[in-house]
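DUF1023 domain-containing protein
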Amino acid sequence: MTVTPLRYGLDEADATIGPRLLACDPPGGARVVEAFGDVVNADHIAVVVPGNGHHLGNYFTSQEAHSPRSRGQLLLRTMQQLAPESRSAVVVWVGYHAPPEWYNAITNDAAYAGASDLAALTHYLPRDAHITLVGHSYGSTVAGLAMAGARAEDCVALGSPGMGVVHRSELGTGTRLWAGYGETDRIRLIPQVRLGRLGLGRNPLHPELGATSFGTGDIPGHCGYYAEGSESLLNIARIALGRYDEVTSAGLVSTSSTTESRPPRSARSIAAMEAAA
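Tokens:
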């Protein structure tokens, strides 16, 4: 798949749509990148990368709670509530031609095509900001393939079907990898293979990739990772704020929606247990 690289800049904003667009295809295109909060002066920036089914045609019209815009706005509010003293921002990145349905997402063509644009975004953002990639479902595959070329301190994979790679070295160095899986999310049933452009690679908790597992609490199915007030959303926000000591591991649930959470278990406890199994 060959696509024209995105050009990032506030001059790309279409005044009829909104003033905070960092990039946008012409009408009829698929890609749109929107910023929430003061990105220019932010201390912490989370880049939300959604999975299949999202595109410019439904980006501004979807009223569903799990739409990319809703998730981005909710994540920003949560970050601001947890750390009102910090300057936070969220970029919602629908910067690739996402597969229209789940059954179209068995190849990594779209992820490969979009990864370089996602990596380029991180170099456009302020150099002194703490940047976190947050990929949900197929979006985590895009984020995984972008990691080697991205400038990001953290990458959070939510309900990942695979990071697009089979070896940790393919993810580059210097970026912490985190993973969250809801107890009722069946995405882990997807075979962890990659044969050329077929298959999405290993899931982030595979010992070879060694992600840190975090708690998601009682979230529903595959689309509940941003549920308001959930342990999942709180942990995403904590990671994006660099508050790693407050992140709870799988099986531990915080009793508070503030920064006062239970101490987490050993950072790599889940990955270590799987490696020993």
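The first strand starts at residue 21 and ends at 24.
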